[in-house]
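Q: DNA-directed RNA polymerase, please. Structure only.
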Amino acid sequence: MSFCSSLSTPRSPSLLSKSKPFKGDNKPAAFSVVKRKPCSTSSLKYNDQPHPDYGMEVMFKFAGFDPFERSTYFGPFFDLGKFEGFRRIFHHSTYRVLLGHRESKILSSLLNQFKQRVWIRGNRPEEEEIFQFTMVQRVGGSWDGYWLTESLLNDGDAFVGGLAY
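A: Structure for DNA-directed RNA polymerase:
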Protein backbone atom coordinates (compact mmCIF):
# COMPACT_ATOMS: atom_id res chain seq x y z
CA MET A 1 0.00 0.00 0.00
CA SER A 2 1.38 3.42 -0.87
CA PHE A 3 1.87 6.04 1.83
CA CYS A 4 -0.09 8.64 -0.13
CA SER A 5 -2.96 6.37 -1.08
CA SER A 6 -5.19 8.24 1.33
CA LEU A 7 -4.73 11.31 -0.89
CA SER A 8 -6.03 9.57 -3.99
CA THR A 9 -9.32 10.39 -5.63
CA PRO A 10 -10.87 8.80 -8.71
CA ARG A 11 -9.69 11.79 -10.78
CA SER A 12 -6.15 11.92 -9.37
CA PRO A 13 -4.41 8.57 -8.99
CA SER A 14 -2.00 8.01 -6.13
CA LEU A 15 1.17 10.03 -6.46
CA LEU A 16 3.32 7.27 -5.05
CA SER A 17 2.76 3.58 -5.42
CA LYS A 18 4.99 0.66 -4.60
CA SER A 19 5.29 -0.64 -8.13
CA LYS A 20 5.41 2.41 -10.40
CA PRO A 21 5.77 5.81 -8.79
CA PHE A 22 5.19 7.78 -11.99
CA LYS A 23 2.81 7.35 -14.89
CA GLY A 24 3.56 7.33 -18.63
CA ASP A 25 5.84 10.25 -19.36
CA ASN A 26 7.61 9.93 -15.98
CA LYS A 27 5.57 12.76 -14.39
CA PRO A 28 3.16 12.32 -11.49
CA ALA A 29 -0.47 13.26 -11.38
CA ALA A 30 -1.08 16.87 -10.35
CA PHE A 31 -2.18 17.49 -6.77
CA SER A 32 -3.55 20.57 -5.12
CA VAL A 33 -1.16 22.39 -2.79
CA VAL A 34 -3.23 21.22 0.19
CA LYS A 35 -2.61 17.59 -0.72
CA ARG A 36 0.98 18.06 -1.91
CA LYS A 37 2.60 19.09 1.41
CA PRO A 38 1.29 16.11 3.41
CA CYS A 39 2.59 13.90 0.63
CA SER A 40 6.00 15.57 0.97
CA THR A 41 6.22 14.81 4.67
CA SER A 42 4.90 11.27 4.07
CA SER A 43 7.54 10.59 1.44
CA LEU A 44 10.21 11.53 3.99
CA LYS A 45 8.52 9.66 6.84
CA TYR A 46 8.57 6.46 4.78
CA ASN A 47 11.84 7.39 3.08
CA ASP A 48 13.25 3.87 2.77
CA GLN A 49 10.11 2.24 1.33
CA PRO A 50 10.17 0.52 -1.15
CA HIS A 51 13.97 1.06 -1.36
CA PRO A 52 16.58 3.23 0.43
CA ASP A 53 16.16 7.00 -0.07
CA TYR A 54 13.04 6.59 -2.21
CA GLY A 55 11.29 9.42 -0.34
CA MET A 56 14.19 11.74 -1.11
CA GLU A 57 13.97 10.75 -4.78
CA VAL A 58 10.32 11.84 -4.76
CA MET A 59 11.23 15.16 -3.11
CA PHE A 60 13.98 15.66 -5.71
CA LYS A 61 11.53 15.03 -8.57
CA PHE A 62 9.18 17.67 -7.12
CA ALA A 63 11.87 20.20 -6.23
CA GLY A 64 11.26 23.61 -7.78
CA PHE A 65 14.85 24.56 -8.59
CA ASP A 66 16.94 24.76 -11.75
CA PRO A 67 19.42 21.85 -11.72
CA PHE A 68 21.92 23.92 -13.70
CA GLU A 69 22.18 26.74 -11.14
CA ARG A 70 23.03 26.93 -7.45
CA SER A 71 19.86 26.80 -5.38
CA THR A 72 18.53 28.25 -2.12
CA TYR A 73 16.17 25.28 -1.67
CA PHE A 74 17.72 24.56 1.76
CA GLY A 75 18.59 28.20 2.57
CA PRO A 76 22.23 28.83 1.59
CA PHE A 77 23.30 28.47 -2.04
CA PHE A 78 24.05 24.81 -2.85
CA ASP A 79 24.70 22.94 -6.06
CA LEU A 80 21.71 20.56 -6.06
CA GLY A 81 21.76 19.62 -9.74
CA LYS A 82 22.45 15.97 -9.04
CA PHE A 83 20.55 13.79 -6.62
CA GLU A 84 23.67 12.94 -4.58
CA GLY A 85 24.12 16.54 -3.38
CA PHE A 86 20.43 16.75 -2.49
CA ARG A 87 20.66 13.43 -0.63
CA ARG A 88 23.72 14.46 1.41
CA ILE A 89 21.96 17.54 2.75
CA PHE A 90 19.01 15.42 3.93
CA HIS A 91 21.42 13.14 5.80
CA HIS A 92 23.03 16.16 7.55
CA SER A 93 21.96 16.60 11.18
CA THR A 94 19.86 19.65 10.24
CA TYR A 95 17.45 17.67 8.03
CA ARG A 96 17.82 14.04 9.13
CA VAL A 97 14.96 14.48 11.62
CA LEU A 98 12.65 14.41 8.57
CA LEU A 99 13.83 10.95 7.51
CA GLY A 100 11.68 8.29 9.12
CA HIS A 101 10.13 10.77 11.56
CA ARG A 102 7.46 9.60 13.99
CA GLU A 103 5.05 12.49 13.95
CA SER A 104 4.33 15.79 12.18
CA LYS A 105 1.89 18.60 12.80
CA ILE A 106 1.12 21.72 10.75
CA LEU A 107 1.68 24.74 12.98
CA SER A 108 0.65 27.49 10.58
CA SER A 109 -0.21 28.09 6.94
CA LEU A 110 -0.15 31.06 4.60
CA LEU A 111 -2.28 29.98 1.67
CA ASN A 112 -1.73 33.21 -0.24
CA GLN A 113 1.99 32.33 -0.40
CA PHE A 114 1.56 28.55 0.01
CA LYS A 115 3.87 28.28 2.98
CA GLN A 116 3.49 25.95 5.92
CA ARG A 117 5.43 25.64 9.15
CA VAL A 118 5.52 22.02 10.25
CA TRP A 119 6.66 20.54 13.56
CA ILE A 120 8.46 17.19 13.19
CA ARG A 121 9.28 14.65 15.91
CA GLY A 122 12.10 12.38 14.83
CA ASN A 123 13.04 8.82 15.75
CA ARG A 124 15.90 9.77 18.07
CA PRO A 125 15.24 10.88 21.67
CA GLU A 126 14.38 14.59 22.03
CA GLU A 127 14.71 15.09 18.27
CA GLU A 128 12.25 17.81 17.27
CA GLU A 129 12.51 20.50 14.61
CA ILE A 130 10.29 23.00 12.84
CA PHE A 131 10.48 23.33 9.06
CA GLN A 132 8.97 25.72 6.57
CA PHE A 133 7.72 24.26 3.28
CA THR A 134 7.18 26.73 0.43
CA MET A 135 5.23 25.50 -2.59
CA VAL A 136 5.05 27.03 -6.06
CA GLN A 137 2.72 26.15 -8.92
CA ARG A 138 4.30 25.97 -12.38
CA VAL A 139 2.62 27.91 -15.16
CA GLY A 140 3.22 26.90 -18.77
CA GLY A 141 5.43 24.23 -20.23
CA SER A 142 5.33 20.51 -19.54
CA TRP A 143 4.91 21.03 -15.77
CA ASP A 144 1.92 23.41 -16.13
CA GLY A 145 -0.32 23.20 -13.06
CA TYR A 146 2.03 21.03 -10.97
CA TRP A 147 2.90 22.02 -7.39
CA LEU A 148 6.61 21.85 -6.58
CA THR A 149 8.49 22.44 -3.35
CA GLU A 150 10.36 25.72 -3.84
CA SER A 151 12.16 25.57 -0.50
CA LEU A 152 12.43 23.49 2.63
CA LEU A 153 13.94 25.51 5.46
CA ASN A 154 14.81 24.62 9.03
CA ASP A 155 13.46 27.30 11.41
CA GLY A 156 16.47 26.92 13.72
CA ASP A 157 20.12 27.82 13.20
CA ALA A 158 20.33 25.44 10.29
CA PHE A 159 23.92 25.43 9.10
CA VAL A 160 25.80 26.88 12.06
CA GLY A 161 29.35 25.67 11.69
CA GLY A 162 28.93 24.94 8.00
CA LEU A 163 28.05 21.89 5.99
CA ALA A 164 30.41 19.70 4.04
CA TYR A 165 28.50 18.17 1.16
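A: Brief note, in case it's useful. The chain is about 20% helix and 20% strand.
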